[in-house]
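Structure, all two chains, one model.
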Amino acid sequence: MRTPTPCPDLERLAALFVESGPEHSAWQAHQQQCARCQQAWVTFQELTADLALPVDVDETDVARAVMEQVRRTEHRWAAWRRSWSAWLLAPAAAAAMVVISVLALPESEMPLYDPNTEGFAARSGSASLDRWVSLQVFETHRDGTGFERVQGAIAADAGLLFAFENRKASGLGHLMIFGVDAAGDVFWYHPAFTSPSENPTSLAIEFTQKPRELMEAVEHDLKPGWLRVFGLFTTAPMDVANVEALVDESLKVQPDITQMKRIPVEKSGQHTFLLHVE
Amino acid sequence: MARHATPQHLRLVESQPSEATSRDETLSDDALMVLAQDGSHTAFEALILRHEAMVMGYATRFLGDAALGRDATQDVFLTLWAKRRRFRAQGKFKSFLLTYTHNACRVTARRQRSHVAKVAAFEDEPGTPSAVGTPLDTMLKNARSVRLQKWLRRLPDAQRQALILRYFNDLSISQIADITGRRPGTVKSDLSRGLARLCAWASTEESQ
């Protein structure tokens, strides 16, 4: 270590203050005898203490303003995609179709786009049936007195309830709900069954404009980590074994379930979201 | 191969849903960001609520103006949402967020540079944003703190950023280097030069 010279310039002294390293102690003796360096050191301490003081800010409504902008942008994007799809089908009739779809379609036949629906994201054109279906998940209270909407995290032994929406435009009359964890294990919620040898099929469901609850709570021993939940809406019933084989295929293509978005089922509507098991 | 698990328990539930209470408070930043990547507005909003004070504090310190700080904060989170797919869960969300904050403040500062310089030159001129009843001034009651904010605005961007990240955000040299894209040695230089200037101005003012 180079022997420091007395009374370094201010920048050198500041560098020693910033580093507060071994050289610092080497300057202690000098500072005890040098009023200038002492004063500078005190000033550094005051300045950095003042820098560290909290700044009182008014963050009221920042989150609300940001989320409003996010939803507005996504809504405009979804509306643009709907109009873009119409133009592709028949250019000559596209203008009329856009007007009809935006202005004249009854609300019950409008594609589902509720920004508040947990996990909903605008889908690509190749999965157009997705926009007519949705899934919500609820976690039951431990004392069985009720249930509450899940936001993103669930307990490992949570009893889960689901509600679905299935607009008539989907043409889909069957539903399966299952979760896939990071290990590739599939946890069945609907159809729910307790015997491993069973191979049940999809639930038959009606069309509904409002969320319809499936009032059967299902509990699994989930492992902490990510769980990808799928609501699989199909035209014809599927069985558990068939779907699990398709899950296998999907995992080979995309082993990271946080990135997995669909199961390769033709003519299906799918609503998927991630949950974090605590 | 996918293995299926049979449920432990099935029961009928007939009661009504209660008010949603969120477990999201227990989720890590990385987990919330992964949920946001999956499209969850709730998770993203939870991230904003968790970090908006930190972002706004930095932006207000850097820009020296509460309104600009608030605007920059909104820009930061809107950019974060737009570019959420770039995030990789590596336990460094705060650094990731501060990088966006740093960039947003630099852009805002560049836009406001002539205005900021004018404000810095006219210390107590009536009508300058920082002199007349802004929330920042309300809070910075201590005269020393008011002077500090004025001096900060006079520093070059890199030195101002380094000092705020080091002493306000309490980050290490290597974390600051990650965020700013500057080498650790350069960050140390920025800190020491910035601190030396502040000290010189403080000494000059005290001797007057």
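The longest strand of chain A covers residues 208-219.
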